[in-house]
Structures are given as structure tokens and as C-alpha cells.
């Protein structure tokens, strides 16, 4: 029986890790819809389920026939053989049916989870950055792993348990009535008497187990806190106090464990008493009935066996409801991710950008506030037109709105007022994919994927040949170190490109942008200090990248601002100065101040 104390042991999942269950089972409908895409597998699984439930009941029926006929007076070889032949057939059907059921039910569980993961990921890829500000990537990734694991459990196990045990319990009861109606009526009264206390103590035991787990977690928190601050503890002479605090936590844990084991021992005693007592009462009634000849010994054996099966099925059913609610909670959370609609979409009939691309980008009276910080204007009545081939350096203190310009240019957000245009086309009227195809982004941190050097380089242009890749690497001053990698372009760069230096990562990002060969370049220069040699290599690579492209660069290097056609100085979302390095340095404005602070240190 699933509800015996042995099965509801102390190892419940830690409370903080347990995802919230739902209040109703209705979110599970989403799983049914998913599973319905595989009608063949569902049909086989349900058929196997029905057959195995039937075969489970057929086992005691076979025993009845064996005891009455094969062990009975006047048994001959034929009756013995045929009784055992039946048992053998039932056992073979039960074995094969169980294997088929397990395979297809588990298959459905895994398939439904795989489909949900694919659909959720596909939908997440459509979401703009604002979505990931309100939905933390950590939380989403936990939904994709732990919630899907719960669903896999629900579809692959719990639903099967629920269905199988309902059928078994019902079929078993019907069989019991046909065997011995009076005894069955007694059993029906007896089941709640046995199962009730087990369910009651089972739930108390789970609560006690959870609290016991929490206390263990408290110990873990204290240990890591004290170990992490050992110097402070010792320097302030707090060893005694910490020992005292720890001893309290350990004793609390012991207290919680004591409560748990007490409940469990009482529960064990009660279960043993009720289960064996119940069986004894049944056997006593049965023995009386056999002695007065009203039923056979085989019937009693079949009755006790079937009774055990029915009680087990009912016990299992009382356990699955909680699991189904947990599954419904998980399905609900994943469904939210599936139903999420992106705010930024292509219009029904998008305007195409002109061909060939000119590489013009214009911000016209743009005002924008981030949805999560509506009180601060990230851009305020901002206007800037960058002509084809022009290099504009954006300079300004932290929080001035420099990165926001890039986000609006890529149409990750729409401005609240004003308009952004690429080659004369207003962004909301174009397909975001087409807009982004006109741009190459070099982020501040050269973002690398856990993939080969080749795949990292051609991330924006998968059709690039090796010859083109090397050409770009050459231009980005990345070829030398790439050639030295153990397997050349096939070398795995490790998670986050951990095997490369900062300067090398930047040069890979530059080579990637070169391969993308887009007319507009959005370049966020790295602030991290590079050594002089690396700095020269990166600058050299950037010069080649910017050639013949419209470039908007968030500048952190003196060489960049010097080479720019125009410097735009921003503060609080507005342009405060514009001009060349020489002109702006001569004025005693924000630029001169920033340049003194920023570029002098960079040069040093
Ligand atoms: N995702 C966001 N959610 C809410 N507010 C944001 C977000 N990103 C930026 N901001 C705010 O918008 C304003 C402009 O930020 P932005 O990142 O464009 O500045 P920046 O000039 O690029 O700064 P830095 O040089 O530090 O990167 C700031 O006030 C900033 O706090």
C-alpha cells in the first residue's frame, strides 16, 4: 500500500524549493491538449492501462480457481494444469501489458514536456528585453526545468496511477461483490477505518518532515554564514556566541526530528494494528462462513487478495490528488509563458527598407521612459540624424541614455513620443527582423556562446565560408590567436568564452560584426582596461570595421572620439553639446570635463 509509513518517509522536498500547487486541476487541460497531438500513443497507453487493471483483478480470481480446483478434493492433472495455465496467461498479459503501459505513458510524459519546452523557448525568443526585466531569467529557467519535471512526473506517472487505481479499485469492488456481498459490505465499512488514520497521520508526518527539513536548512545557512565571516567572528571574539547560536539551531533540528519520528512510530503502530486487525476480522468472518459451508476456501483467498489490491488502490488515490494539484500549478506557470504576447511586433503589411541600404539612422524628437522606471526619462526630446558613412561618437556620464539609443535603434522598445527611422522608414512600419538585419551590434562585453570559435564568429551570418571567416578574423586582428588555438576554428570556446582574454573576446565580437557586413554599426566600446598592445589591436580592428559604415559608437577611448566625424555629448537623455574633439575640448563644457576624467585615465 502506498500510504504505509515506509513510503511516506522523512525526506520531503525542502519547503522553499517546493513550487506552489494550483487550487484547481483545470490548468491540467493544457497537458491534455498537448497529449492529444499523439492519439495513437494515447490509445495504446489507455488500452494497456485497462488491460493491466483487468489482469490485476484476474490474479486473485485465478488463485480462487487454483485453491478451489487444483487444491480441492478430487483434483486431477487436467484441472490442476488448466488452473495454472490460466494463472500463467494472466501473469503473461499483466507483464506485457505493464511494460507497454509503462513505455507509452512515460513516452507521453517525456514528449509532452519536450513539446512544452520547445514551444515556451520559441515564444521566449519573440519577447523584447522589457519582458525579461519583469520576468527574471533565473525564474524562467526554473520553470523550464523544475516545472517541466513536475509535468513529466504528472503525465508519465501520476495520471497513470490515478487512472489505473481508479479502474482497479472499481473493478476490484465489483469482483468482491460477486465473490461475497456480505463480506464486501463489511470491507467497505472497514476501508475508511483503515485508510482514514493513515491519511491523517500521513499528512501530519509530511508537515513534520518539512519542518524538519527547514531546520536542517537553517543549520546550513548558519554554517555558511559563520564560515564566510570567520575572520570577523574571531577578530571580534564571538566564538562562544556563535557556538551557542549553532547549538540552539542543532537542538531545534533535533526537536523537529523527534516530533517527526514520534508521529511516524505512532502511525506505524496504528497501521499495523488496523491492517492486520482488519485482515484478521475478515479471515475470522471468512473462516466462519467456510466452516458452515456458505463459501469456499478459494473464495476467501481471492477475497483477501482482492481486498488488499482495492485498499492499495484507494490508498494510492488519496496520495495522487496533491501531486495533480502540484502538476496543475506547474502547467499554469508554463502556460503563462506560452500565452505571453510580445509588445513589439511586425505590422500586418510591413514597409520594406529601401534597397540598396543607405545606412541612415535618424531619431526625431524621441522621448522614452523604461516601463519599469516611468519616473525617469531615459531620453527626452532627443533628435539626431546620422548620415550614411558617418561616425558619431556618443559620450556622456553614466545613465545619460547612451545605451537606450541602441535599444531604440534596434526596436527593442518603441518611444513614447517621436520617431526613429532607418533609411527613411519609420521603425513601427517595418519588420523588426529587417531593421535588425541592417545593423551589427558589438556589445561592451564580447558575448560568446558555449560553441566552437567558428560558430561564434559566424553567429550573425551562418553562410560565411571559412575563407570569409579568416578574412574577417584577419581584419579584426583575431587570426593570430585563433590559429594558435588547439583545434583552430573548431576549438570549443567554453562557457562564456572563458578560455579567451577580454581583448580577444572583443576582437571576436568585432570579427562577428565584420562578417555580418551590415550597413549600420552599433558599437559599445568596452570600458575594461586593456594593456597597450591589446588596446592597439582592438582599435586597429575597429578602424577597419567602421570604414564605409554608418557607425554609432558609445565611446570610451580617446582614439575613437578623435577619429569620429562628430561627437554627441549626452546628459539626462538630452544632447548637451555636439562637435569635434578639438572644438569641444576647447570649450569648458561637459565634454572637456568628461574627457579630462575619462580619456586621461584610459591613456595612462
Ligand atoms: N532596463 C531598464 N529599466 C529601467 N530603467 C533603465 C533601464 N536601463 C536603463 N535605465 C535608466 O535609463 C536611463 C538611461 O540609461 P542608459 O543605460 O541608456 O544610460 P547610459 O548612458 O548607457 O549609461 P552607462 O554608461 O552607465 O551604460 C538611466 O536613468 C537608467 O537608470
TrEMBL record:
Give start and end of each ABC transmembrane type-1 domain.
Answer: 43-326
User: Which residue ranges traverse the bilayer?
Assistant: 42-63, 84-104, 173-201, 261-283, 295-317
Query: What membrane topology does the UniProt entry give?
Result: Multi-pass membrane protein
Record domain ABC transporter: where: 361-597
Q: Is Transmembrane helix one of the keywords UniProt gives this record?
A: yes
Cite the residue spans of the region called Disordered: 1-20
Where does this protein have compositionally biased stretches of type Low complexity?
10-20
- GO molecular function term, any single one: ATP binding
List where this protein forms a coiled coil: none
Q: Where in the cell is it found?
A: Cell membrane
One GO cellular component this record assigns the protein to is: plasma membrane
Pfam families referenced in this protein's UniProt entry, alphabetically: ABC_membrane (PF00664), ABC_tran (PF00005)
Entry keyword set: ATP-binding, Membrane, Nucleotide-binding, Transmembrane, Transmembrane helix
Functional note: Part of an ABC transporter complex. Transmembrane domains (TMD) form a pore in the inner membrane and the ATP-binding domain (NBD) is responsible for energy generation.
The protein, known as: ABC transporter ATP-binding protein
Gene source species: Novosphingobium sediminis
Name of the gene encoding the protein in the UniProt record: draA
Amino acid at each position: 500500500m502506498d500510504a504505509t509509513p515506509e513510503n511516506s518517509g522523512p525526506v520531503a522536498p525542502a519547503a522553499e524549493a517546493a513550487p506552489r500547487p494550483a487550487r484547481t486541476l483545470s490548468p491540467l487541460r493544457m497537458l491534455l491538449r498537448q497529449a492529444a497531438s499523439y492519439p495513437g500513443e494515447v490509445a495504446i497507453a489507455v488500452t494497456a492501462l485497462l488491460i493491466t487493471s483487468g489482469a490485476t483483478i484476474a490474479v486473485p480470481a485465478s488463485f480462487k480457481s487454483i485453491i478451489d480446483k487444483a487444491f480441492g478434493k478430487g483434483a486431477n492433472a487436467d484441472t490442476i494444469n488448466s488452473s495454472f495455465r490460466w494463472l500463467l496467461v494472466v501473469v503473461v498479459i499483466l507483464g506485457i501489458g505493464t511494460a507497454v503501459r509503462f513505455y507509452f505513458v512515460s513516452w507521453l510524459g517525456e514528449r509532452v514536456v519536450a513539446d512544452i519546452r520547445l514551444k515556451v523557448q520559441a515564444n521566449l525568443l519573440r519577447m523584447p528585453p522589457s519582458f525579461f526585466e519583469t520576468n527574471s531569467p533565473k525564474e524562467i529557467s526554473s520553470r523550464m526545468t523544475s516545472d517541466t519535471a513536475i509535468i513529466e512526473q504528472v503525465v508519465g506517472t501520476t495520471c497513470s496511477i490515478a487512472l489505473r487505481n481508479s479502474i482497479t479499485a472499481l473493478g476490484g469492488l465489483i469482483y468482491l461483490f460477486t465473490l461475497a456481498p456480505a463480506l464486501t459490505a463489511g470491507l467497505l465499512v472497514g476501508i475508511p477505518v483503515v485508510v482514514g488514520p493513515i491519511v491523517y497521520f500521513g499528512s501530519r508526518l509530511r508537515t513534520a518532515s518539512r519542518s524538519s527539513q527547514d531546520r536542517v536548512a537553517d543549520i546550513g545557512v548558519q554554517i555558511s554564514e559563520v564560515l564566510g565571516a570567520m575572520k570577523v567572528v574571531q577578530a571580534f571574539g564571538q566564538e562562544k556566541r556563535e557556538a551557542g547560536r549553532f547549538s540552539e539551531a542543532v537542538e531545534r533540528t533535533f526537536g523537529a526530528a523527534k516530533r517527526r519520528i514520534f508521529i511516524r512510530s505512532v502511525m506505524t503502530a496504528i497501521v499495523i494494528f488496523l491492517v492486520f486487525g482488519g485482515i484478521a476480522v475478515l479471515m475470522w468472518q471468512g473462516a466462519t462462513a467456510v466452516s458452515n459451508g456458505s463459501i469456499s476456501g478459494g473464495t476467501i483467498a481471492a477475497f483477501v487478495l482482492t481486498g488488499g489490491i482495492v485498499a492499495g488502490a484507494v490508498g494510492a488515490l488519496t496520495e495522487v490528488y496533491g501531486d495533480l494539484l502540484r502538476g496543475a500549478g506547474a502547467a499554469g506557470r508554463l502556460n503563462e509563458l506560452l500565452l505571453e504576447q510580445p509588445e513589439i511586433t511586425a505590422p500586418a503589411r510591413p514597409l520594406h527598407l529601401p534597397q540598396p541600404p543607405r545606412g541612415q539612422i535618424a531619431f526625431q524628437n524621441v522621448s522614452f521612459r523604461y516601463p519599469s522606471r516611468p519616473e525617469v526619462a531615459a531620453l527626452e526630446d532627443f533628435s539626431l540624424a546620422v548620415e550614411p558613412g558617418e561616425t558619431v561618437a556618443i559620450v556622456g556620464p553614466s545613465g545619460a541614455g547612451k545605451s537606450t539609443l541602441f535599444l531604440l535603434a534596434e526596436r527593442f522598445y518603441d518611444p513614447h513620443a517621436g520617431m526613429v527611422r532607418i533609411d527613411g522608414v519609420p521603425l513601427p512600419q517595418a519588420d523588426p527582423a529587417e531593421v535588425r538585419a541592417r545593423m551589427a551590434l558589438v556589445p561592451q562585453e564580447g558575448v560568446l556562446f558555449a560553441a566552437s570559435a567558428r560558430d561564434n564568429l559566424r553567429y550573425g551570418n551562418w553562410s560565411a565560408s571559412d575563407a570569409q571567416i579568416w578574412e574577417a578574423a584577419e581584419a579584426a586582428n583575431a587570426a593570430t590567436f585563433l590559429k594558435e588555438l588547439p583545434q583552430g576554428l573548431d576549438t570549443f570556446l567554453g562557457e562564456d568564452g572563458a578560455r579567451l582574454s577580454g581583448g580577444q573576446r572583443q576582437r571576436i565580437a568585432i570579427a562577428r560584426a565584420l562578417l555580418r557586413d551590415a550597413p549600420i554599426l552599433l558599437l559599445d566600446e568596452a570600458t575594461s582596461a586593456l594593456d597597450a598592445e591589446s588596446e592597439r589591436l582592438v582599435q586597429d580592428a575597429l578602424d577597419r570595421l567602421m570604414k564605409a559604415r554608418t557607425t554609432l559608437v558609445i565611446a570610451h577611448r580617446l582614439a575613437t572620439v578623435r577619429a569620429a566625424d562628430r561627437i554627441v555629448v549626452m546628459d539626462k537623455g538630452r544632447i548637451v553639446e555636439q562637435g569635434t574633439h578639438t572644438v569641444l575640448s576647447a570649450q569648458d563644457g561637459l565634454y572637456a570635463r568628461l574627457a579630462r576624467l575619462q580619456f586621461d585615465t584610459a591613456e595612462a
